[in-house]
Records
---
Amino acid sequence: MKFAYRFSNLLGAVYRRGNLSFTPNGDAILSPVGNRVTLFHLKDNKSETFPVATRLNVTCVGLSPDGSLAILVDEEGAALLVSLIMRSVIHQFHFQKPVHSVCFSPDGKKFVITKDNVALMYHAPGRKREFNAFVLDKTYYGPYDETTCIDWTDDSKCFAVGSKDMSTWVFGAERWANLIYYSLGGHKDAIVGCFFEENSLNIYTVSQDGALCVWQCDTGLDGLKPRPPKDTAKDKNKSTIDLDNDFAEQCKGEEIHGKASTNKQENREKVKYSRVAKYFFNKEGDFNKLTSAAYHKKIHLLVTGFASGVFHLHDLPEFNLIHSLSISDQRIASISINCTGDWIAFGCSGLGQLLVWEWQSESYVLKQQGHFNSMVSLAYSPDGQYLVTGGDDGKVKVWNTSSGFCFVTFTEHTSSVAVVTFTSTGYVILSASLDGTVRAFDLHRYRNFRTFTSPRLTQFSCLAVDSSGEIVSAGSQDTFEIFIWSMQSGRLLDVICGHEGPISSLCFNPVKSILASASWDKTVRLWDMFDSWRSKETLTLNSDVLAVAFRPDGKELAVAALDGQITFWDPENAVQTGSIEGRHDLQMGRKELDKITAKQAAKGKSFTTLCYSADGQSVLAGGLSKFVCIYHVKEQILIKKFEISCNLSLDAMEEYLDRRKMTEFGSMALIDEGAGDEDGVAIALPGVKRGRSWAATTTEGLLIYSLDSGLVFDPFELDIDITPSSIRKVLHQKEYAKGIIMAFRLNEKKLIQEVMETVPYNEVDVVCSSLPEVYVEKVLEFLASAFEKSRHLEFYLTWTRRLLMLYGQKLKTRSGKLLPTIQYLQKSLQRHFEDVSKLCEWNRYNIKYALAISQQRGMKRSAETSVGEEEMEESDSDYLMEHSAVDS
């Protein structure tokens, strides 16, 4: 079994901190999530997390005007230059100190970053081949306190920098004769945003205390005068010894030192600013400070966000209020407006919330929020289309694995959700909570239709449902009992006693009516459902049992214990068949407040969750560590270890303590964060049933690893004569079956698609019947992936139907091995079925509506014609009576 799993997507978290950025076309938004960045496609309704990660949380994102490059800067100033086309890192750089903002110039030739009280201007990378992607051009000094924001003029001639010292500085990107720098005051609090007017040097400044200043410049952009060239006569007399000094100065860049008060004599021919207006937002006290702002130059729209969750829309320069609404009770950390000015994005770091609002229609384009607290459990649906997660915030969220969006949230629980799971149908979700209830949710009507409770209040720590979906069981962590309910009636059927410690895990045998329960009393008990829930076997271990899982065929049981061991048992004979010492694979990090080393701490750690792969050959194990391990069950060896996160912003990620954080009074963490006792990266992995991808709930969110991402050259029985040109030559001779076999031997996806789509529609039956059996599985796997992107739905459905009809019986004998491929195919078909069925229902409704209208109009016309005929008959009879009277 090959394990080419790669990071696929990040769900469950949509925004953490940093600035939001719309793409140049305005259809997608870039959101920093922890130490990664997620791109939300608003029109396609999809999300995509880039497979790049910084060492710490991302605080600044700078997007190039053409949308091809992005600069990601973390908390300590380490930057990654990322290609948004290739989704890969091009260059790494360190600014040495935390960066407050990054902004490209509109022409894409320069970019400015602000750190401390300095603004640094660099040559933008990507314009030519270069050894160093980040070349410093100029360093600007002026503010006395930390810089906060940046904005450029439309022609990239000047930029403005706001500061916490209540001043705003306008700098020239070049040394203009009449503008090198200019300082603007007028505020009584830190500057939150500064914005140039369109094609002008006029500027708006917004401060934290809710004040807006309008500054007018006496010079236009065309009035900026270039500085005369320096006299180079002295340079000719320079010695060649000064070349090294020149090179050092070039690397350092030119320095421009601004002064707040300059000589009046020098300012006569310089650019001048005057404040023409000052406005104040509605103040509600010091707690409601202005926290973020954005301005759209073309439609003159100013959007401001406040600490209370309220945002205002104003029309400038008249300062007319358009809207004033509230999105939450948390601080709005970031605001961004797309290029057309129709959509406004809001980020709330306190709630982890991302909103995109269309202000003209007053409707949401996107409204997503992750779990407020830690995400503790997850489960895949049987077809792999959905993921359900439960969190410490008491919420149950359902995510679409294709789009990456949460489409329903259940909030009925009043305490932490311990476990979630799907029934075998995939349309019912069950969740167990510490509030003493087990709830069943319907995915058709999106409602809580069953609530299971115990006779006395207890906290449920584990949950299981049988393969039929009729029997629900939950384990208690305080009364040491297992409760059994009927799904149909909601009645409590039985209460099973026998364990002498908290119940840690439950699992039903997928094939037989056997329930396995694990407990802290160092035993695993097997209960027979058809024998009045009597204890069939008791498996005794050397340590407390934390997790238990059946193999998909029900013939093996995996058990994880507190001593770090994973043991395998034959449930029929209660005999141990193998064991894995996994403690050494659980590498732990050292917390900032730990008194012992990471190596010593790892000795007391263990796996807290287990899951078999779909074919039953491997088992996934995760615990309170940044690693998830995959073991081969038969060989009892570690196949691969996945590092879930490299984010050093999380505690317990480093093996050794940083001595720079130690003081004579102890760790700096005691001063900064207090003696918190968070558990680092808490990973849980229940419910992963698919072989092509697996998921893990972590501190950073819901991570999905998949076999489907990336381009991997993996040839099959490759020969020297098999080339793309030889394959196309075979196709030209209409030997389609041979061409397909050659394409799969070369195993390039685009070439396989070209060969498959070259086969005529009426030749599909003949080609399918002549394929060797070894290639049938590969063709089905390709068809499953092709359904996700290709528009040739009927063509590929014909291939699928013909292959399954011809080879269905033979494939059934290898169902265990083919299960991941069949489930992948089922997921793709199910998604198309739902999309097409919705479209068909809509078309049927429209046709019925059109027929009803046409019938109504026909009835009106027939009524009008009958009335007209009656009137004509009456007029004819009157006419005849009149003429007969005259004749008489």
Note: The radius of gyration is 34 Å.
---
Amino acid sequence: MEQTNPLPLSFVLPNPKDLSGLSLGFIDGNFEDLRDLLLRSSSLASNLNHDCSDLNDRLIHLRTDLTKHAVSWISTSLSAKVSLEDLRFNLESLLCLPTDSVGKQTNWELQKLVEELCRIQNQRKYFVTALKLESLVGDLEDSVFHPIRSHKGSTLQDLAVKHKRFSHAIKTMNEIELMLGDVTRHHSQWRHLVESVDSRADKSLSVIRPEVIAEHRAFLSSLGWPPKLATSKVEHGEVATIPNPLLLMQGDQKESYSQSFLLLCGLQQLNTKKEKRKKLHMPKEDSNVGLWATDELVKPVASRMEYHFMQWAEQPEFIFELVYKVTRDFADGVDDFLQPLIDRAMLVSCSAKEAWVSAMVQMLSGFLEKKVFPKLIDTFKEKHMKSEAISSWFHLVDQMVTFDKRMQSFVNSDTCLSYEGSSTAFSQDISVMGLFCKKPEWLKTWGKIELKDAYRKTKEDIKNERAWLVDSERTRLGNESTSRSAKYVLSTREDYKAPIVADSFLNRTWRLIDHGLSLPAILPRIQFIRATATKFLWCIFKFMLLEFKKIDLSYYSLFEDTLIQACGPINAARYLESKLREWSDDLVFVEMWAAESSAKVDRKPEASCQGCFFGEELKGLVELETNWLMEIITVFLQQFDSLCSDNFNINTVLWEENVITGSSNLTVSQGVAEALDNLRRHLCVLQLNMNPKDFLDLWRNLAEGIDHYVYRKFCSGEPVLRRKRFDRFEVDAEALLTVLQPYCVRPAAFFPRVREILRLLRMHEEEKARLRGALSRNGGNNCLKLFGISNLSAQLVEQFCRCY
């Protein structure tokens, strides 16, 4: 057999240029030439191994002695602590005893001694704490930077050894964190000690965390995660279910994953404790962080799904459908498998299902934030592409809102603890609409797009010829079939006799509000609604005001068509007011009003009225309605005055011309009859076409105005009065009271001054004599109330009694 030649030394020995100076010096000191190296290398290697073994034994012995001495010193220190505590207590007791001026020096010395003892005790505490922390940090650094090498075994055995090492390091870091938390709370002056330990512990954490995550990812990859997205199999119009590799694990493999999962949870808990301690004196922030272990499941799935996302950039509905399907298919398996591990890790208020859904939603939000919205914003800035960008924006937002609602329904499918519409019912981490909460500039752009679109569509709606018309036939039938009291229980547009365009106003306003309510955070929600729905309401008010100004309301050309046309904006305003009050009473708007009041968002606290979310808008609506009603009442009063300006005046000659001698044959004056006939006809038109509440306000205020008008006319007469003029006034006044007979049971109650004038005119001589006597004795208005007169002045009554 042929003997193989050994390799040349040039192929065995390293190049001297690659060795450090210390290594070359060591070799030159132990070997004279190449032959000496070949003969003595094995013995030198044996000696070096023996020396290393001795040094390791000595290091272990020193570490054992150090631990024994530390324990002994701590024991002695504890006994000294007890003695010092007793001594301090005794000295403080001595200081409390009453002393004279001779003992003041002694007390001062004792006080100094107590202060010194306290200083020594604090130093002892510091040294004990520093020693414990040094021991723990040293143990941590040994386990992290100098791990014990294990013999090669199976993959799962090697993984178990690594998990044991990781677990020991995390346990040590938790003990360190516990001590640092105690020091931070009770000894804030030891900040240099805390900073020093933090620095060393963070270095260990920066090493151990990537190792734990890398091992976890490698183990997931060995399981076949992520699974293939079975999007090519379609059954009955739906994508086939995706298999879950987590449910296929058994035995040691399952236990290894459990240990890896618990390690990640432990690291996350440790990180949370450190952040809370460091932010102890800082303002609290709402930061709802997901579960790291669940995030590690989602990241490889995201990398696989991103390919499909890029293919469907112009069809976002496919993206949302794929994310929803993957989330739904894996949710039950994740919940069944991971929830026991979460409970085992003692994570409080943590749900595996919610953590999985949150991670998937955040993955989708990240893609939209980086890949979709920036391109959409750039397209929107180009004028020739703006209309296409707006259409794509609306489509994308609609898909996001629908996706959030589906996710919310899915998460809440097994619980009934939340209610729809609540500001706290849906977490920002389980909502892709939360992207607008993180990007205020995008929220502002979205608001502008929504407002301009609603304004444009509303301008098209009001161009319709029948937009402001009131359905008189419908309201007439409703009045015939409804009782007097039920007429004021209103709910629908037909009940308020509002025009068709009022529904368009409300539907577009609610659409803007509904989009705002889809935002998970309450302050961005308020900001969006104020920037869209509230501004749109003021645009609506402007449209109604312009429509009312088109109407020619004047007493010399007051026709039925004019009154019917005026009822359109008035009824629309009343209908909008009722809906805004209804919305303001909803719990969602009450929460937003409370949050806005406390945060003072976009408006001063005193700017809004009536203590509700739409207070300022309601104030504007009420002011519009009042002004419009007052315009109609003013026209009615002007017409009434023009027709009967020569009536109701005792001193007027024309009023006396047609008086017949027998008072029983007197008829209503011609001017009064014509004025009352016009008034009755106009009120009938308004009753048919105006909503009952505004009509009630109108005729009551109109009655008050006519009552005041007649009273002023009566007061303008001369003191010398004649009986037949009284009879004329009585006949005309009685006719005036009958005008309101169809609308109330006691019309005289709405003409208090006219009623009391008639009472004066109908007094018997005996009652007049008593009235004159009471006025001469007492005077003033107090005695008039005894005669049932409270709205006429004492001067007028006294003049009447004196002259007649």
Note: Confidence is low (pLDDT under 50) at residues 281-287, 416-425, 477-483, 653-664.
